[in-house]
Amino acid sequence: MDIIVLKFGGSSLSDNIKLNIVANKIIDFYNKNNKIVVVVSAQGKTTDNLIKEAKELSYEPNKREMDTLLSTGEQVSISKLSILLNRLGYKTISLTGWQAGIYTSNDNGEAKIEYIDTNRIKNELDANNIVIVAGFQGINSKNDITTLGRGGSDTTAVSIAASLQAAHCYIFSDVDGVYSADPNRITDTTKIGELSYDEMLDLSNEGAKVLHNRCVEVAKKYNVLIETGSTFNNNVGTLINNKIEESCVKSVVKNDNLFLITLKYESYNADMLNKLYFLLLSHEIIPLNILNNSTNSFNISFTIKACDLGKFQELLEGEISMFTSSFTNISRISLVGYGIMNNKNIIEKALEILNINSVEIFSVELEECKLSIMTKEKVSDKILEQLHHELI
Amino acid sequence: MDIIVLKFGGSSLSDNIKLNIVANKIIDFYNKNNKIVVVVSAQGKTTDNLIKEAKELSYEPNKREMDTLLSTGEQVSISKLSILLNRLGYKTISLTGWQAGIYTSNDNGEAKIEYIDTNRIKNELDANNIVIVAGFQGINSKNDITTLGRGGSDTTAVSIAASLQAAHCYIFSDVDGVYSADPNRITDTTKIGELSYDEMLDLSNEGAKVLHNRCVEVAKKYNVLIETGSTFNNNVGTLINNKIEESCVKSVVKNDNLFLITLKYESYNADMLNKLYFLLLSHEIIPLNILNNSTNSFNISFTIKACDLGKFQELLEGEISMFTSSFTNISRISLVGYGIMNNKNIIEKALEILNINSVEIFSVELEECKLSIMTKEKVSDKILEQLHHELI
User: Fold this and answer.
1) Residues 6+ positions from B251 with CB-CB distance below 8 Å
2) Nearest to B79 among A56, A68, A120 (CB)
3) Predicted local confidence at residue B207, as pLDDT
4) Which of B55, B57, B95 would you mutate first to test chain A, the one with the most A CBs within 10 A?
5) What is the pTM of this model?
6) Mean pLDDT, rounded, of chain A
7) Which region among A119-133, B289-303, B353-367 has the lowest average model confidence (pLDDT)?
8) Quick check: B54 and A99 CB within 8 A?
9) What ipTM, to 2 d.p.?
10) Going from the N-terminus, what domains does chain B have, and what CATH number goes with each?
């Protein structure tokens, strides 16, 4: 009998109709003679609502207490799903993070799983129970409840799969797999059948929301076979494994939530770039890249995430004084696929398409499985579609 | 430094304004140089809502899973109250039942506290934390979450007070103490200053809602000084201790949620009463008293709670066959106070008042601290007022 781990996200659990769909999906896997561990998130918007309620009591709630509060969300999910599966005639047991033996570091709000004591889970599986575990949470050395941060339930599922040497870890969500580009932006994208861990990591880091990168890192380390799929259909999803494939572009991703900032100073000072860099970091603004393109005057450009723009504008009014400044909303386009680094044709073709469309390029970065192009303006979905069409 | 236990019920925690009132009450006690343990219930109607949500998934939810679900209510309360007290500048720590070392029997839904491992609570008090404990919940020998049943938070508070040998256990609610009769029914009732454990037990059993009888039993056993009071004012409440006082009536209570049932059979059979009694018990209908008043025909009367009437009517249509049956909504009036058993004047006076008002009596029961009179009809609040006026 194989052990199978199934993970369901919050939007798959948000009402009783969806809970019934999830329950029937679990029953299908159970009836195929598998031992089943289910990992669930909090229902729907529960976590967001609890955060909102806490912020009404304090601008900066204590992190330990926040974790105690937030962990109730998954606890509600596990018990409800268990009650429902019981009613449908199946033996189940719900386990909170601490009951499931998920031991983490002490960092409340962003704890890391240190080890999983699988005794309880194994005993419950041996007693023919469907085991339903609360994702996103664990217990630290002080016996306090911790949470793993956003996307933590994916990490819980993959870590349990690794500890139990499960045959398969399914991550179910609203979408049935990883696509060659965002289907909301581009027509005629295709679902990717198989990705290597490194390719999936590159996609996660570029903002593909199907899997959290922490969970992919754990899967890579312990060689866990992940399959993504939709809660709401039975289509074959995307398989993430350690397979190395022929060089090709698997996916084209565009991130428009970036700003290119240029500062011009009249007087020049050799350590100005360093000073600026550290100033930004000390205000929790992380420049994605920074470029000293001084010629006559001192001229420095860098890109930041849109969410950091507010913090940067405050800095501009205070600690940074310069001649002129400008900021533009730009795009980063990433092509992901094994072997891109060694495939000159792909790089040339991509740059050529951008050139034909008169898109000015700010920077190009090349990695083993990824080509990232930062432009000097926002790139239209039409151009993305052309890249997708020509390269995939 | 004295250890003080403060317990707040759900209606004292139902919104942020009330949470602030509770927080300030806690701070008042803390600033009087006390070590503070706070025990809280779930906010407002949380528990009822969770029960309703579970029943939407299953008519008879698994009890273990229900306890996991319901325990989230108090977990939300402890973390929110902790977050608020932090913001007001106080060091706090929230503890769930299992974190607070509250070990119970295995009976999910109605577990009994077996012992409290107070190490964690004591360590947190020594670190000058206000310790906020989730009431109503604990952990059993299987490492599963249990709940103590309705009124369980009172029991948690008194049990913690007993284990820590706390100087005082305050039970705060909407009302500031125990009254000589229900203030909603009778004008000019008075608040009782002091009650013995036995008197309070008699009142709790007769439906006075200020304290749950289980908590009073624990307080009696371990000699815990309870003070009831209102969350919303600073009036002196009612003290419950082991003091024995002069014989007098402290409180008059009326319960109208009772039905008197009479069954008439044509043929007589000696063990009919026993059979009926066991039949009722096997259907979880508990007759409060039963009377064989057969003369010519076999004639049996008994009283049941209104909530059992539905179950009984089902029985009537099935397993019980008799000549005629009747049921009437009746009242039980209880006079509570130490030494009533030996005070003939009180008993005579009470029966006389009922007689003047033409109230037919079904039964009279006399105990050390209590006189209970079951009538054959529902007794008006006006008569209750007369009893209160003449006897207290």
Assistant:
1) B178, B179, B180, B181, B192, B199, B203, B208, B335, B336, B337, B392
2) A68
3) 65
4) B57
5) 0.78
6) 88
7) B289-303
8) no
9) 0.76
10) 3-241 (3.40.1160.10), 251-391 (3.30.2130.10)
